């Protein structure tokens, strides 16, 4: 019987060598990147089709209603679905799409004859996370995913052998740290609080809360100067430590009722599985967090709450917003776009979907002019690093900016097995190109190691020795002659703003462009900026750098870049939070 292992530690209890390491991504120098080891030659899991994406969108809405109903019953409240979605929307969408991908993998495993799963004994402490931030980290870990795959294998009636007892995962306390700027912000907050909450015959204004907004201090002073509103700058304000025990009976009972049933579909069990793995911050710890959240800035009168990224990961903040909206429905909640891909990628990311659907206003970097709740504004200040020089540097360096290759999918088209295999095999072509043409190529790794296949090891295995070591991406771009962007991301905008010769290269079939962006994208194609064939890249690198600089400075290229930036990274001074 073939044994399939979901995580590395399980090997310790196996005597024979007839096993496959599902958690590893296989690479063969002769055949390229092969993907996961299922123990049998099987096609890789494809990115979701349009039909599957549409199905999951409908499923999300269905289980949002069910989950909200369950939460209202559990907490004995009757709050609106839209308010609950602020809290649970990010988790529910990522979990639902990611679990659907894992269920596809389990269906694939079930087609293998005489296969047995080797795993640890299941424990709720290994799979129930503290909050959404903890969930995001665990979502890409071997052991957490091993538990998810094991549960699904039980539901699929695949043989499961529990050889080991699961080790207890130690809780990591959240430690609040302060810096000098935080001390200044605190005094600044207190001053504004005193000034703008004086008796009404002096002044009576509501605040706009700016939560971890880049450049918030400058924005705050500008809002005061324009007399449009009064800022309350909140950085490092929302933290919590949970200590409540897991309510095992409530979590396990629904799934336990159906585990013995045959031929379960994804829709048959996913609601019960979601309830079982739900973060504690939505169940056991919700009452404690709610109490603390209600005390936070209790007397401050708000007109608008603006966030850029904290609203996604920080459950304390989301619960605080939840209660603010309940107490005063007139308060507006707003999101300022915090990365690329928005408004451009064919498949809407989880963040764009939630942020443009759930919150009252979405401040984009320039796109979405005719959308109901999208307000075109300006790009985040940290992106704006414009190089006006048209001269050629003497570094003679080609910078290839890499994205993360995630070990486990959250349902995006660019983290499927199919996408990972395609992307890694393209990297091999760059390896061969560097060796054959003897080009000075520097590879910029994504600074976050979370969720990534170890690209650093892969690159060094394939004779890549020059890994970019510049402190910031803007610095790396500035020190290069040519920049190659391998994924539709913020790096594209940063390279365009730096005015460096830039090539876009990715698989358009797997990472398509939405209809509204076709015109600007086609301009990039016509100008020779976007390339879909590696032969084009190879020929391009053969050109003299003077020729490349002349091409980049041409009116057609500059016009296409300017048109793209005007729509997806506007630099107009139109910062407003009304």
Describe the model.
By secondary structure, the chain is an alpha/beta fold. Among the domains are: 50-173 and 242-284, no CATH class; 398-568, Glycogen Phosphorylase B (Rossmann fold). It is built from 21 helices and 17 strands. It has helices at 50-75, 81-110, 124-127, 132-138, 142-155, 180-196, 216-225, 248-256, 266-277, 286-295, 310-313, 315-327, 350-358, 417-437, 455-461, 473-478, 490-498, 518-526, 534-541, 545-553, 555-568; strands spanning 2-5, 19-21, 25-28, 32-36, 115-121, 159-165, 207-211, 230-234, 302-307, 332-336, 361-364, 374-376, 398-401, 441-444, 482-485, 502-505, 530-531. The strands form four sheets. A six-stranded parallel β-sheet has the order 8-7-9-10-11-12. The longest helix has 30 residues, at 81-110. It is globular and about 70 Å long.
| Strands ordered across the widest β-sheet | 8-7-9-10-11-12
Q: Kindly state the percentage of residues in helix.
A: 40-55%
> Multimeric state of these chains?
single chain
The value of Rg in angstroms is: 25 Å
What structural class do the secondary elements suggest? alpha/beta
Main sheet overview: 6 strands, parallel
Shape: globular
Q: Compute the number of strand runs.
A: 17
Q: Helical region count?
A: 21
Mean pLDDT: 83
Question: CATH superfamily of the domain at 398-568, called what?
Answer: Glycogen Phosphorylase B
């Amino acid at each position: 019987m073939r044994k399939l292992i979901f995580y590395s530690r399980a090997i310790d209890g196996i005597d024979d060598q007839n096993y496959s390491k599902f958690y590893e991504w296989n690479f063969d120098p002769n055949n390229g990147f092969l993907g996961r080891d299922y123990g049998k030659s099987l096609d890789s899991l494809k990115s979701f089709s349009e039909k599957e994406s549409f199905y999951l969108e409908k499923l999300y809405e269905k289980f949002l209603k069910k989950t909200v109903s369950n939460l209202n019953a559990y907490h004995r409240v009757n709050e609106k679905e839209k308010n609950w979605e602020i809290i649970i929307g990010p988790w529910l969408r990522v979990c639902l799409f990611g679990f659907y991908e894992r269920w596809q993998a389990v269906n694939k495993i079930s087609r293998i004859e005489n296969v047995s799963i080797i795993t640890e004994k299941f424990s709720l402490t290994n799979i129930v996370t503290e909050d959404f931030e903890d969930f995001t980290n665990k979502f890409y870990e071997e052991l957490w995913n091993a538990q998810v795959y094991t549960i699904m294998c039980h539901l699929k009636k695949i043989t499961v052998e529990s050889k080991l007892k699961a080790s207890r995962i130690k809780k990591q306390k959240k430690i609040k740290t302060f810096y000098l700027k935080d001390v200044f912000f605190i005094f600044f907050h207190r001053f504004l609080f005193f000034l703008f909450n004086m008796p009404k015959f002096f002044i009576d204004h509501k605040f706009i809360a700016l939560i971890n907004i880049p450049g918030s201090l400058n924005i705050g002073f500008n809002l005061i100067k324009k007399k449009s509103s009064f800022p309350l700058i909140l950085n490092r304000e929302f933290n919590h430590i949970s200590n409540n025990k897991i309510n095992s009976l409530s979590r396990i009972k629904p799934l336990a009722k159906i585990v013995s049933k045959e031929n379960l579909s994804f829709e048959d069990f996913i609601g019960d599985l979601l309830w079982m793995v739900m973060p504690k911050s939505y169940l056991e710890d919700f009452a404690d967090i709610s109490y603390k959240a209600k005390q936070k800035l209790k007397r401050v009168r708000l007109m608008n709450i603006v966030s850029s990224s904290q609203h996604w990961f920080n459950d304390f903040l989301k619960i605080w917003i939840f209660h603010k909206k309940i107490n005063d429905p007139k308060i507006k909640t707003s999101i300022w776009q915090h990365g690329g891909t928005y408004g451009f990628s064919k498949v809407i990311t989880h963040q764009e979907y939630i942020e443009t659907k759930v919150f009252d206003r979405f401040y984009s970097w320039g796109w979405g002019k005719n959308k109901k709740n999208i307000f075109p504004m300006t790009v985040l200040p940290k992106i704006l690093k414009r190089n006006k020089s048209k001269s050629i540097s003497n570094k003679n360096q080609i910078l290839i900016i890499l994205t993360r290759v995630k070990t486990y999918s959250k349902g995006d088209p660019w983290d499927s097995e199919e996408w990972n295999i395609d992307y890694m095999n393209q990297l091999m072509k760059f390896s061969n190109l560097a060796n054959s043409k003897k080009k000075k190529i520097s590879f910029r790794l994504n600074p976050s190691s979370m969720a990534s296949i170890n690209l650093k090891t892969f690159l060094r295995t394939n004779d890549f020795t020059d890994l970019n070591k510049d402190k910031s991406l803007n610095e790396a771009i500035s020190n290069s002659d040519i920049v190659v962007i391998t994924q539709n991301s913020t790096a594209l905008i940063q390279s365009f703003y730096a005015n460096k010769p830039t090539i876009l290269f990715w698989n358009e079939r797997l990472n398509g462009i939405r209809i509204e962006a076709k015109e600007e994208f086609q301009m990039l194609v016509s100008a020779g900026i976007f390339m879909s064939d590696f032969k084009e890249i190879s020929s391009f690198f053969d050109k003299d750098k003077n020729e490349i600089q002349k091409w980049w400075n041409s009116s057609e290229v500059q016009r296409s870049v300017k048109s793209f930036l005007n729509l997806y990274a506007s630099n107009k001074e139109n910062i407003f939070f009304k």
